[in-house]
Design goal:
This protein is an alpha/beta fold. The protein has 13 helices and 13 strands. The protein has three domains: 70 residues, Arc Repressor Mutant, subunit A (Orthogonal Bundle), CATH 1.10.10; 134 residues, ATPase, nucleotide binding domain (Nucleotidyltransferase, domain 5, 2-Layer Sandwich), CATH 3.30.420; 164 residues, Nucleotidyltransferase, domain 5. A five-stranded mixed β-sheet has the order 6-5-4-7-8. A five-stranded mixed β-sheet has the order 11-10-9-12-13, with helices on both faces. Strands 1-3-2 form a three-stranded antiparallel β-sheet. The structure holds zinc ion.
């Protein structure tokens, strides 16, 4: 690229940071090969990044004769970020710049009070954790928040949304004034896709579709190691794939959306419905914990519900594989962590329904992610955005 040296410099610095962020430690020679920039240019940029303490040297690599090269990685304690997952138990993590968790906590939100009350609860918690870690404010590069979704079209006549008001707010605009740091909002499904890409199966598969199975159903597409966001950051809305004509109404205004059959909220609702049919109205409060306990205690009706949901999901996955032909499909979220029978059903139904013989053995794997995956993905978003702001 010609003509705009500051811009070129910025782009080159960012490519170096992005490559090292994902693949580390690397030598200058490897960096130069990965990003296709001459060794002297790479060295010049690396020297300035070392001077600014964004990178650090870590030991020496193997050499093919001659001096062993110095290896580079992100200087993890140069800045810190927070990452949060808005959920029925909202997790909050403090990470260094390498994305390693330094501290974590869980905030239990009062769901009925809506997004802003949770945001202020979070901001208090962020300050408490920052003080506990003895970090001055200027060491915090940002706060990433994985939200259940925002700015999606919504049907007003449907009040039973699992999102307690998130559909009607611009989370970035509402959250930012509450924090003395830059705030980055990402949808939960994409935040976990990001975490899977960096910390999980993404280290083995460069092109994969991530399915988020939690109180909502979502997705994220990674193509050649990059998140696909789409023209309006609206890609990956797997949960709103219409799977049944005239099916269950969805808060998005459609009917028969996959989420209405496959999320934890859908499972709890279905179990409740069947119990009601059988036992009348005296029902316990049924949430996903209840469902899993009943399943583990051998309740056959609950088992049926889980298997049927897995079947619906399997068809959805087959559709995605038919359209995108990814290297793998990864299942994440609370259901993937806790419910093998559901996932196994989805895997076998998907394999039956994939059109192409060649793609019919597409690996469908459960995520390597743990409880804090989304929060970690949101923190990762804050780190990437921090690198992007550097000139
Ligand atoms: Zn929908």
């Amino acid at each position: 690229m010609r003509g705009n040296p500051p811009l070129i410099r910025k782009i080159n610095r960012q490519s170096i940071l992005r490559v090292i962020e994902k693949e580390f430690p690397l030598s200058r020679t490897e960096l130069s090969r990965r990003i296709g920039l001459s060794l002297p240019s790479v060295s010049r940029i690396v020297d300035s990044l070392l001077e600014e303490k964004l990178l650090r040297e870590v030991g020496k690599g193997d050499s093919s004769g001659g001096r062993r090269p110095l290896l580079l990685e992100i200087n993890a304690d140069h800045r810190y970020v927070f990452g949060a997952e808005i959920s029925r138990a909202t997790s909050l993590v403090l990470c260094d710049l390498s994305g390693t968790i330094q501290d974590r906590t869980t905030v239990v939100p009062d769901i009925s009070r809506g997004p802003l009350s949770l945001a202020s609860q979070l901001s208090l918690e962020v300050e408490r954790m920052r003080e506990k870690a003895s970090l001055p404010r200027e060491m915090i590069a940002g706060v990433g928040v994985g939200t259940p979704g925002y700015l999606f079209k919504s049907a007003e006549h449907i009040t039973q949304s699992p999102f307690f008001g998130w559909h009607s707010i611009d989370a970035e605009e509402e959250f930012s004034p509450l924090f003395p740091y830059p705030v980055f909002i990402e949808n939960v499904a994409r935040a976990s896709t990001l975490a899977e890409m960096i910390f999980g199966w993404g280290r083995e598969y460069k092109t994969f579709f991530y399915v988020y199975l939690d109180w909502g159903t979502g997705g994220g597409m990674v193509y050649k190691g990059e998140m696909v966001r789409g023209r309006n950051r609206a890609s990956g809305e797997f949960g709103h794939m219409v799977i049944e004509r005239d099916g269950i109404p969805c808060y998005c205004g459609n009917r028969g959306c996959l989420e209405q059959y496959t999320s934890t909220s859908a499972l709890s609702r279905e179990v409740k419905k069947r119990l009601q049919k059988r036992d009348g109205n005296a029902l316990p409060e049924i949430d996903f914990d209840w469902v899993m306990q009943a399943y583990e205690a051998g309740n056959p009706m609950v088992r049926d519900v889980l298997v049927e949901a897995g079947m619906m999901l399997g068809k959805g996955i087959a559709n995605v594989v038919n359209v995108l032909n990814p290297e793998a499909v990864i299942l994440g979220g609370e259901i993937s962590r806790r419910c093998p029978i559901y996932c196994e059903e989805a895997q076998s139904v998907a394999h039956e329904h994939i059109f192409s013989l060649g793609a019919s053995d597409t690996p469908i794997l459960r995520s390597k992610g743990e409880v804090d995956t989304v929060a970690l993905g949101a923190a990762r978003q804050a780190i990437t955005s921090y690198f992007e702001t550097l000139v």
